[in-house]
Amino acid sequence: MKLTTAGESHGKALTGIIEGLPSNLEIDTDAINADLALRQSGYGRGGRQKIERDRIEIISGVRNRLTLGSPLCFTIINADYKNWEQYMSPEGCDVTGRVLTKVRPGHADLTGMKKFCQTDARNILERASARETAVRVAAGGIAKSYLGALGVSVSGYVRCVCGIEDKNVYSFEELAAAKGHPLFMLDGDAEKQAMALIDTLKAEGDTAGGIVEIRVKGLKSGFGSCMTYGEKLDARLAFALMGVQAIKGVEVGIGFEAGRLCGSKVHDEIYKKDGTYARTTNNAGGIEGGMSNGEEIVLRVAMKPIPTLMRGLKTVDTATGEACTAAGERSDVAAICACEIILESVAAFTIAQAVADRLGGDNMREVIDRYNALD
């Protein structure tokens, strides 16, 4: 299973192509659109979200809501393109308008300009923009349908916003309630503090990042491999999650805490009950030796603060070589809720890839039968 994405932030549309889907997988566009709406939600979002109303439009690979086994192509129209057509049209446009040379610290602007031999950061930022993640949310929605048919669920919540942390432990079933909260935080007191901090940062022209926890329930053991490093499930998940814009760190299970504790306090002891193996704890986060072990997969992901600050940071104007204040694009103060939905979607697609790699199957009946046959 493979996803390819294309499109610019202010271009005509965003496009995705998924190869390797089995036939007869039911596609629920309402559920996908609900996730796309959640990606645009959350306290601290900016003006772009008032313009776009993201919806998936399937171009090929599906008939009467069921996949055909052929590549599935879909698009998400950029409503804001009408305001940018004169600057972004592939058929010819005014490249002297909306030029950005006051490159932003923490963004792809400067390094991308050097790598791709550009004099206008617009040619970099349009693709580097987190707008691209709308495609990955849509693809993740399709992956959730695939996993759901096997009894596998993916969920998550926001644990921390700019240092304000929810340290409580929640069951998988409790996580769904987070989507009804302004910051996807389950601790109401922590959420109120975080919202007040976002208000302060907005007034100061500053931004916030945070930490998200993603969980996967119902995945049987043995997905991934200990035989080749490229097939390790934790490595694949870390790679995919780090590939999301603004992500700076990924932990599996207790993560870095494992480096601070002795072995007797880290490793999950094993027992057997009614013929089934289980662990007394889940410090490994559901992955041992690069393979799922049947416990919940637990991932924590750190998002850096958004690099576009309204007050601007010190930088250099690449057109003049002079010191200046970084340019301000329309931006969010905090996008941690969007990040949670994106990471949930990316994790779902990566798990679906690992399942498809092991089980194969040209149609969903084969996939389900093979999955049910596993211990």
General description of the model:
The chain has 375 residues and is of the alpha+beta class. The protein has 10 helices and 17 strands. The protein has helices at 29-39, 48-51, 81-88, 109-115, 122-128, 133-148, 188-204, 233-242, 336-359, 364-372; strands at 2-6, 13-19, 57-60, 62-63, 66-67, 72-77, 153-161, 164-165, 210-217, 247-252, 270-273, 276-279, 287-288, 291-292, 297-303, 314-316, 323-325. It has a 5-stranded antiparallel sheet with strand order 8-7-9-15-10. A 4-stranded antiparallel sheet has the order 1-2-6-3, covered by helices on one side. Strands 4-5 form a two-stranded antiparallel sheet. Strand 11 and strand 12 (276-279) form a beta hairpin.
Rg from Cα: 22 Å
Total number of helical segments?
10
Q: What is the assembly state of the chains in this entry?
A: single chain
Helical percentage: 25-40%
**Poorly predicted segments:** none
Question: Roughly what fraction of the amino acids lie in strands?
Answer: 15-25%
Order of helices and strands: EEHHEEEEHHHHEEHEHEEEEEEEEHH
SSE topology sketch:
Layout: E1 2-6, E2 13-19, H1 29-39, H2 48-51, E3 57-60, E4 62-63, E5 66-67, E6 72-77, H3 81-88, H4 109-115, H5 122-128, H6 133-148, E7 153-161, E8 164-165, H7 188-204, E9 210-217, H8 233-242, E10 247-252, E11 270-273, E12 276-279, E13 287-288, E14 291-292, E15 297-303, E16 314-316, E17 323-325, H9 336-359, H10 364-372
Antiparallel strand pairs: 1-2, 2-6, 3-6, 4-5, 7-8, 7-9, 9-15, 10-15, 11-12, 13-14, 16-17
Helix pairs in contact: 1-6, 1-9, 6-9, 8-9
